[in-house]
Amino acid sequence: MLRGINLGSTRRVPMVELRALFAQAGYADVQTYVQSGNVVLSSDASPAALEREAQRLISAQFGFDVPVVVRSHQELAAVVKLNPLGDVAQDPKRYQVSFLSGELSADRIAALEAAVAEPERFVAHGRELYAWHPAGVARSKLSTALAGKGLGVRATARNWTTVTTLLEMAGG
Hints:
CATH topology of the largest domain: Alpha-Beta Plaits
Number of helices: 6
Number of domains: 2
Shape: globular
Radius of gyration: 16 Å
Oligomer: single chain
Helix content: 25-40%
CATH architecture of the largest domain: 2-Layer Sandwich
């Protein structure tokens, strides 16, 4: 999952070129989903090694650095299975999962919890942050905090529709 591409006229990464880049690098079953930088592929590399290689390939091809967060099929399946806000999150486009490159400190999690405004909900679990924004993300202090660089780790968020679609693309 790439962060911060195709948001306006800068940092443009055409998905057809992204698929070709990974295929030419020797990855199999390369697929993309929507323009926000979701790539599903087959690899024997560890998620950490794949993150480094993806960042290197993208920088060399497109001329700018892109934060990348990788989850294996098993890790993504566990995210979907946990679904800690599934009982309250009624609109999958307002239910987001932030994927982190590492776990947050208790202090950072407490700061995020303090940004929750009713009726929002928030759950931190390992390297994922689940957030329900029933009124949308535009005015949410929690959403702003989740998108900020103050987390101290690489992070990128996807709505629940995208999360479940990526799992389906990866083979269920």
